[in-house]
Every structure is written in structure tokens, then in C-alpha cells.
Design goal:
The protein is of the alpha/beta class. Helices cover about 40% and strands about 25% of the residues. The protein has one domain: 3-Layer(aba) Sandwich (Rossmann fold), CATH 3.40.50. It starts with 5 loop residues before the first helix and ends with a strand.
């Protein structure tokens, strides 16, 4: 599902959590390692969604906080991690004082900001001097099997597949963080497989947010495009990748 409409995300919050909530786990681990998150680390996840990363951070002994513009996501995150400080808000207006966090993260969220440099300035504001800001999102389409399905759906609808944006290309996130004034910027690529057990789950995941009639009409297109990714057990495995970048807030 594309778009930044909070009401749309609220409407699909439960499905998102079930089908995609833990998908970025390997990228979480890469950022945890790069930033040194551990017991007592104060971490803010911007665009926290249904709170799976917050729960993961809690298990590591960190002190997690989250912010999301979708009320349905905020509600799920609060119920999943009662100890976390989860608030409604947007990238451009993070409701915490300056220097509140050791690490600020954003996974598959920065592209929804009205202005990415303004968003990173706000993330830097709430990070302590010398703290980390880390962002991650989908890599270029050629590295994502899911792009094959999305292109098939777009073509069937008479639309052109969406081109790769700068943040998906090699070096894009690193350049953006450097332009935002962050220091010691580094980046990486993480493989993220998506495995689903059956046809119905695949269609729900790919067409999330569509109305039932559209989903039923488009399901054959999705299944035909997914045939190369079918497993011996009748499910599907799609190999994908995220790019991530980490920088330090100026001291």
C-alpha cells in the first residue's frame, strides 16, 4: 500500500501488523549493531507503525519510544508495548524536547515526510549531541522480488510502474544524511526475504488497502506474477532488500 494518509494506515493497521510488522527485522539488527543500541539506550522510532520494533528494543533492554501519525497504529503500538512512550505525531513535529534520545530511527517512513531535510532536522533536534540518526527503506526495484508483482499490478491497471526514487538507489540515503548535516555517515544493504504460506496471504499482503472487489479482480494478476516465487510447500518466498544509513548528530 502506497501513500501517507493516516486514516488509510489506521484502517489496515491489524493486517499490516500481521503480514508486514516484523518484515524489516534484519534491517533492525543492522541498525542496532551500527548504533550500539543496548540496555538503557533511549531510542525513538519515527513512523513506529504497530510497534514491533519497539517490542524488539524492549527485549534488548533499551528504553523505546515511538511516534506515528495514524491513530490505529498508535493504539496497536501502545497495546503491544505498554512500557514504551508512544505518541501521535509527524516527522516535522516530534513531541519531545531537544536531546531526548540516544538514537532516532525511521524504517520505511522517511519517504512519507513532506520534506525529507526538514524531517531529518527534527530527528537531529531530538537526538542528543553525538547521538545517532538512522534511516532505512526499500532498495532499488531490481533487488526486490516484490517489485515484479507491483509492476504486474500496475501494468494490468494501465499504469506505468513507479520508478526508483533517489533514496532507493546506492548512496542516496548517505547523501541525504550528509546534506542534513549529520556526521560520520555510513550505510549498508540488508537482505529481507518475505515468506507467506498461501495464495490468500500473498494477495492480502500485496493488495493491502484495496477494497474487496478490486482485490478479487486483481488477485489473478498477482498470483500469475508470483508463480516463479512459489515454494514446494505451496507458499511463496520473495527476496528483497533494504538500504540503510546512519549518521551522528553534531556535537
Amino acid at each position: 500500500m502506497d501513500g501517507a494518509d493516516p486514516d488509510r494506515w489506521s484502517a489496515v493497521a491489524a493486517d499490516w501488523s500481521a503480514l508486514w510488522g516484523g518484515f524489516a527485522g534484519p534491517a533492525w539488527d543492522a541498525v542496532v549493531t551500527a548504533t550500539g543500541i543496548g540496555p538503557g539506550t533511549r531510542v525513538l522510532d519515527v513512523g513506529c507503525g504497530s510497534g514491533e520494533l519497539l517490542a524488539h528494543l524492549g527485549r534488548l533492554g533499551a528504553a523505546p519510544a515511538g511516534v506515528d501519525p495514524a491513530p490505529g497504529m498508535v493504539e496497536l503500538a501502545r497495546s503491544r508495548v505498554p512500557a514504551a512512550d508512544v505518541r501521535p505525531g509527524t516527522f516535522e513535529h516530534l513531541p519531545w524536547p531537544d536531546g531526548s534520545f540516544d538514537v532516532v530511527t525511521a524504517f520505511n517512513a522517511l519517504q512519507f515526510a513532506d520534506d525529507t531535510l526538514d524531517a531529518l532536522a527534527e530527528c537531529t533536534r531530538v537526538a542528543r549531541p553525538g547521538g545517532h540518526v538512522a534511516v532505512a527503506n526499500w532498495a532499488e526495484g531490481d533487488r526486490n522480488d516484490l517489485s515484479t508483482l507491483e509492476a504486474a499490478v500496475a501494468t494490468a491497471a494501465g499504469e506505468a510502474p513507479l520508478p526508483d526514487g533517489d533514496l532507493r538507489r546506492p548512496g542516496g540515503l548517505e547523501r541525504l544524511l550528509a546534506d542534513a548535516g549529520l556526521d560520520d555517515v555510513t550505510g549498508g544493504l540488508v537482505e529481507l526475504p518475505w515468506e507467506v504460506p498461501d495464495d490468500g496471504t500473498l494477495v492480502r499482503g500485496v493488495l493491502m488497502g484495496e477494497d474487496p472487489a478490486t482485490m478479487a479482480a486483481t488477485a489473478p494478476t498477482v498470483l500469475a506474477a508470483a508463480r516463479p516465487f512459489r515454494t514446494a510447500t505451496g507458499g511463496y518466498r520473495l527476496d528483497n532488500a533494504f538500504r540503510f544509513a546512519v549518521g551522528r548528530a553534531p556535537a
